[in-house]
Amino acid sequence: MNPIFSLTPSDRGPVLRIREQELSSALTISLEITGLKPLVSRGELVAKGQQLCVDPANKLPSVHSSVSGKVLDLKKDFILIEEEGDRLAEPLKFNNSDSVSMLSDLRDAGIDVHGFKQGCTLIINAVPKEFGIDGHRFLIEEFNHIMSEGLDYLKKAISPIASAIAVPEGMAWTLPGCTGHEIDPVYPAGLPPMVVKSVTGKEMPPDVCVIDAATLYRIGRTVHGKQPVTEIMVKVGSTLFQTPVGTTVGLLTSKAGFSLSDGDRVLLGGPLSGRAVYSLNHGISASTQAVTVIHGGDDPVAKDSPCVGCGECVLKCPARLMPNMISRHAEFGFFENTQNYFIASCFECGLCAYWCTAQRPLLQYIRLAKKELLDKPILEDLRK
Ligand code: SF4
Ligand code: SF4
After folding, report:
1. Cα–Cα distances in Å, from 224 out to 220, 228, 273?
2. What residues line ligand 1, using a CB cutoff of 6 Å?
3. Confidence band (pLDDT; 50, 70, 90) for 259?
4. How far is the CA of 194 from the centre of ligand 1 (A)?
5. Separation CA 171–CA 165 (nearest Å)
6. Contact criterion met (CB below 8 Å) for 173 and 126
7. Predicted TM-score of the model (pTM)
8. 3 state SS of 163
9. Atom 8, ligand 1: which residue's CA is nearest?
10. H or E segment and range at residue 290
11. Which ligand is nearest the CA of 328, by number?
12. Which of 143, 162, 170, 315 has the greatest number of C-beta atoms within 10 Å?
């Protein structure tokens, strides 16, 4: 099997802690804040765990500082903080009185609670999303009690009618109160819609919530420590790091031993479904699980070549879509037309682009169309 399709977790190697590494200058973090309202200004001193930005519409999770430091720069899309001092934010308060306030407390603590529904079937997804994205293995094996605490909180908040944990075949991972479900670890079996189908036997049922194991850990850690989670596990190449949220991809790739040059690409996520960053100063977010380096020359580069109509992408799409038609309309700006080809059902696995004979950037076209359509109420389901 092409290793890119194998979701079997790798052997557990050592964890590299950025805090224990020698750095040439003070740690500077970069936090993405697109769509959020800043609560601090340039030059202000902030504490570790301090809330920096909120969503006035109460939909997106808040962003917190992962270091004690000084705000160096503040732009529409990111905030830059240089570490200094050892200030720590006041502990979070959790109001456990009802479901709405429990979820709202999580959102204020930086957890994405979009899509959580009362009375759903809750699935904890512990299958790697892509080849090598298996940092949650460490969390499940070392911090099962923290994840259980997260699960208890979630159960009180959304009262699921049943809870299951999806694991790669052969991995003996469990969580108290969850039915185990083993999944054949072949890409894209670890992506949420595929996990839902595998566990429930249904495609896109409305009453199911999927949460990945790393997010469950973050909930447990937040509730347990009464502080937002400021450090996460992220796999960079084959190295597993524990590092502050906002650590730049430049620092992580250099500590992982990569030497980058012109033409190389750095992705947040895996090679099939990750998103390329345009600068090595881009920081990882709280939900980043991997950073992937694709060296120029190693792999074919996607280009705006015309579709040759071979149909390969249609054959390979696990959602039974027509990526060739979606991409043709998106390429020329006919974004509305992509709805006729059920673009909302695309779960961005990237297999169409991987197999495209003409090496067209199919996933990028699809993401562009989705972004353009997001403002249109007709695609409400894309916001879930
Ligand atoms: S990314 Fe491509 S292959 Fe994957 S679900 Fe979407 S259209 Fe189908
Ligand atoms: S695989 Fe590429 S070239 Fe072939 S039909 Fe799909 S988009 Fe067109």
Report:
1. 6, 10, 32
2. 317-319, 321, 323, 346-352, 362-363, 366
3. very high
4. 12
5. 11
6. yes
7. 0.93
8. strand
9. 317
10. strand 290-294
11. 2
12. 143
Considering just the CA atoms, what is the radius of gyration of the chain in Å?
A: 21
How far apart CA 118 and CA 154 sit, in angstroms, is 10
In the chain, which segments carry CATH 3.40.50.11540?
94-224
Distance 219 CA to ligand 2 centre (A): 41
Which residue has its alpha carbon closest to ligand 1 atom 4? Answer: 349
Assign domain 94-224 to its CATH superfamily: NADH-ubiquinone oxidoreductase 51kDa subunit (3.40.50.11540)
Torsion over CA: 248, 251, 257, 261 (sign): positive
Residue 247 pLDDT greater than 60, yes or no:
yes
Residue with the smallest CA separation from ligand 2 atom 2 is 356
What's the one-letter identity of residue 210?
Answer: V
Give the residue-averaged pLDDT of 340-350: 97
Which percentage of the chain shows pLDDT scores above 90?
89
- Find the angle CA(214)-CA(295)-CA(293) to the nearest 5 degrees: 15
Residue with tokens 């992220």: 234
Residue whose structure tokens are 């905030």: 79
Give residue 383's pLDDT: 47
For the CA of 359, the nearest ligand: 2
Does the pLDDT at position 300 exceed 80?
A: no
